[in-house]
Specification:
With 372 residues, this protein is mainly β. The chain has helices spanning 6-27, 30-47, and strands at 58-67, 72-75, 94-96, 104-105, 108-112, 117-119, 122-133, 139-146, 155-162, 168-175, 181-189, 192-200, 210-217, 222-229, 237-238, 243-244, 251-260, 262-268, 272-273, 278-288, 294-295, 297-303, 310-315, 322-323, 327-330, 334-338, 345-354, 361-365, 368-371. Bound molecules: calcium ion (CA) (3 copies).
Length: 372
């Protein structure tokens, strides 16, 4: 499977941690003793590493509707036959997924991370109706989704109108590693990747596990996005930002789900700690769910009200830190230090994963917490 062996882990992690920790330990007192203990704990876990599955996404689509301006296609996903089969017969859709034989059942099509296509850092499911939206006559697409298993951090579901030879517009519901759920309107394709708007809808989805996504195309080819919270057929919000379809040929309409192959995430056990609490990272994860090993630079730091940020993990800038394909490790829950030993104020425990050659940001998770 290509996971790290104990020997590999020692080689990769041992020296950098040893260097970082010795410097800390000389400079600082009680705080650094605690960090030292925690990081020794991380090292121990890494040596004893065994893979576990983590945070797989699972979304249902209940119906997909395409109004081409001339006719309307509705798939209710209620015949238990997965795409490419659909309302227009066995070859209705173009499919980029490996659906299991029971993916469509109970009137919904389940999209989960076991059924994804993987290319580079993208793990995705794409289902398309080809050449269905013609420029200049308007149209509409709607996807009615449910997420009774929640929305996994780093994962998204979406609807999209796109041309393989021109551009397109997508509407995503995605959860950040920090747990914020965004609705984003994007211009896509032809080298374009522009976020037209990103709206925090976390509170609007509180207590709700259904949402309908809609993209309307005007006769002037302007695309507007709207959401129906609860899928009660009453659309609740028109999102800011529009896209424009500027191609002359027919557009494809589709839906799907996705996650990044490179994932990182820290989740604090509490937002506020007081004396007597132990500051704890409930989740402390790095994963490469892709098909190929990836060289990364991994940084974790503690931001404090009394010093510049203190590096906790800082490895791979030289390109030698490689996450094997399928690597997925969560160190949490990871007790860091007693709240009582630190001055009161606002702290952060945050992480970034970068491409060590280009510096491209592959993953980021910023987490503030308070000591009161
Ligand atoms: Ca249905
Ligand atoms: Ca079907
Ligand atoms: Ca509604």
């Amino acid at each position: 499977m290509g996971f790290l062996t104990s020997k590999d882990v020692r080689t990769v992690y041992g020296c950098p941690y040893g260097l970082v920790l010795n410097i800390f330990f000389k400079r600082r007192n009680n705080i650094m003793k605690s960090l030292f203990l925690s990081l020794c704990f991380i090292f121990t876990i890494l040596v004893a590493y065994s893979p576990e599955s983590y945070g797989d996404f699972s979304f249902d689509i209940d119906s997909f509707t395409v109004d081409s301006g001339a006719s309307t296609i509705v798939d209710e996903f209620d015949d238990d036959i997965e795409p490419p089969s659909g309302p227009s017969g066995p070859a209705t859709y173009s499919v980029f997924a490996t659906f299991s034989t029971d993916a469509e059942s109970g009137g919904v099509l389940n999209m989960n991370s076991n059924d994804v296509f993987t290319i580079g850092n993208e793990r995705f499911i794409d289902i398309w109706l080809q050449d269905i939206i013609s420029p200049g006559i308007g149209g509409r697409i709607e996807g009615k989704f449910s997420f009774s298993n929640g929305i996994t951090p780093n994962a998204a579901f979406r609807i999209e109108i796109i041309s393989p030879i021109a551009n397109g517009v997508s509407l995503f519901i995605e959860k950040s590693p920090s747990g914020i759920i965004y609705a984003s309107v994007n211009s896509e394709g032809n080298g374009l990747g522009v976020t037209e708007s990103q709206t925090d809808i976390t509170s609007s989805l509180s207590g709700i596990t259904n949402i309908t996504l809609r993209l309307d195309v005007s006769n002037a080819n302007i695309v507007t996005a709207s959401l129906d919270y609860g899928s009660d057929t009453i659309f609740d919000v028109t999102l800011p930002g529009t896209g424009t379809l500027f191609g002359a040929a027919d557009y494809w309409a589709g839906f799907g789900a996705e996650e990044d192959a490179l994932q990182c995430g820290i989740e604090m056990s509490q937002a506020i700690y007081t004396a007597g609490d132990t500051v704890t990272a409930q989740a402390f994860r790095i994963a490469n769910l892709g098909l190929d090993p990836i060289s990364v630079e991994w940084k974790v730091w503690l931001g404090t009200p009394f010093t510049s940020p203190i590096p906790i993990v800082n490895i791979g800038a030289d390109g030698t830190f490689v996450l094997p394909a399928g690597f997925d490790l969560d160190f949490g829950p990871l007790p860091l230090f007693p709240a009582a030993i630190l001055p009161l104020g606002t702290y952060e425990l945050s992480t970034r994963v970068l491409d060590p050659v280009t510096g491209e940001l592959l993953c980021e998770d910023l987490n503030e917490f308070e000591i009161q």
